[in-house]
């Protein structure tokens, strides 16, 4: 737990996010579902922790930096750009055309340069972002923070996010998704170091191959930060995490159902994690208590739900998923925190 001091020194209102309790009744069994609401961080996502942790540790090790560059699917870039703006550091963020309008505008509003990486033939978008960020650093001299391969990324979760979550344990299972694999690896390392037997479950769409399948498989990802087509640099943890596949049509259907009921304001990848948890709970024969790490909030997606995300899965798949998930979401209710 070496890095604790650096986190308490964080001047930006990052960390100590709420753990919001819900009950859910499936097959007559009432389970406890807790949502770690990372949207409540200063810049709105779990990646605030990673951006602050990597930047502050880099400065602590190497001294002041004038300019940084890094790759991001969007949330990390927005967090890094916002932190750099406050600290007077120039930031270049390399993302992909799939970045949300919310994050793209936020990065520019924070005064950072946003570069969209074009994948080379056979290259997945995540690998293209990393390559271009490295090229820019080599050509222009910015410090390349390299979140996708920098072990400070999982360390931020091992030493910060996970201890916060498990302070409110115990849990029967913990559900996360991946983009870089930082959260998954950090939680896995934490559980191993603490000899905590809680089952870690990764929830991803079919086309994702961050941990358990070969890289750059066919099939497109539809939600930024929900899965990755590049094998994570942090893969190889033991034990292998559990894996649950939840398709994007189910994610979008559940998102609109949760919004309509005013139950939560979590973002799309987080809803994927929750649907995975509900699927896991529906197979349990006794009462369980589980936690979902919810990476961001709905404000990043609401503007593009009808114009971009629902058309990406097709209206028929969306309607079918909505009909299937409606009774499940209907049995979910807020709990009064203990
Ligand atoms: C929307 C979203 N969900 C989840 C994640 C989880 O990411 P990681 O695996 O990098 O911890 C990210 C990270 O970029 C994200 O943007």
From TrEMBL:
InterPro entries reported in the protein's UniProt record: Cys_Synth/Cystath_Beta-Synth, TrpB-like_PALP, TrpB-like_PALP_sf
User: Does the entry feature the keyword Iron, yes or no?
Assistant: no
Per the entry, which co-factors are needed? pyridoxal 5'-phosphate
Tryptophan synthase beta chain-like PALP domain residues are 13-295
Which GO BP terms sit in this record? alpha-amino acid metabolic process
Q: Which residues form the signal peptide?
A: none
Is the Cell cycle keyword given for this protein? no
Keywords in alphabetical order, please.
Pyridoxal phosphate
Name residues in a coiled coil.
Answer: none
Q: Which residues cross the membrane?
A: none
Matches recorded under Gene3D superfamilies: 3.40.50.1100
Tree of life domain: Bacteria
PANTHER family referenced in this protein's UniProt entry, alphabetically = CYSTATHIONINE BETA-SYNTHASE (PTHR10314)
Q: What is the protein's given name? A: Pyridoxal-phosphate-dependent enzyme
- What is the organism field in this record? Hyphomonas hirschiana VP5
């Amino acid at each position: 737990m070496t890095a604790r001091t650096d986190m308490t020194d964080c001047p930006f209102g990052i960390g100590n996010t709420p753990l919001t309790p819900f009950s859910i009744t499936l097959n007559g069994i009432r389970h406890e579902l807790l949502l770690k609401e990372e949207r409540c961080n200063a810049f709105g996502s779990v990646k605030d922790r990673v951006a602050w942790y990597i930047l502050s540790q880099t400065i602590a090790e190497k001294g002041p930096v004038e300019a940084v560059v890094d790759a991001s699917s969007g949330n990390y870039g927005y967090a890094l750009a916002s932190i750099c703006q406050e600290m007077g550091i120039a930031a270049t963020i390399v993302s992909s055309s799939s970045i949300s309008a919310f994050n793209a505008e936020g990065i520019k509003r924070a005064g950072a340069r946003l570069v969209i990486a074009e994948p080379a033939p056979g290259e997945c978008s995540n690998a293209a972002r990393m390559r271009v960020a490295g090229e820019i650093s080599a050509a222009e001299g910015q410090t390349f923070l390299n979140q996708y391969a920098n072990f400070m990324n999982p360390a931020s979760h091992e030493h910060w996010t996970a201890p916060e979550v498990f302070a409110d344990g115990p849990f029967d299972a913990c559900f996360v998704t991946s983009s870089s694999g930082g959260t998954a690896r950090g939680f896995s390392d934490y559980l191993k170091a603490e000899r905590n037997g809680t089952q870690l479950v990764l929830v991803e769409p079919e086309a994702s191959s961050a941990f358990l399948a070969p890289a750059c498989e066919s099939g497109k990802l539809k939600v930024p930060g929900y899965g990755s087509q590049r094998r994570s640099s942090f893969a190889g943890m033991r034990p292998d995490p559990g894996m649950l596949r939840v398709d994007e049509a189910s994610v979008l259907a559940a998102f609109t159902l949760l919004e309509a009921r005013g139950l939560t304001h979590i973002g799309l990848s987080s809803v994927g994690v929750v649907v995975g948890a509900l699927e896991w709970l529906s197979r349990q024969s006794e009462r369980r208590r589980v936690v979902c790490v919810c990476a961001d909030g709905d404000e990043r997606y609401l503007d593009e739900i009808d114009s971009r995300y629902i058309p990406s899965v097709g209206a028929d798949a969306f309607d079918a998923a909505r009909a299937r998930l409606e009774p499940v979401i209907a049995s979910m209710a807020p709990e009064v925190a203990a």
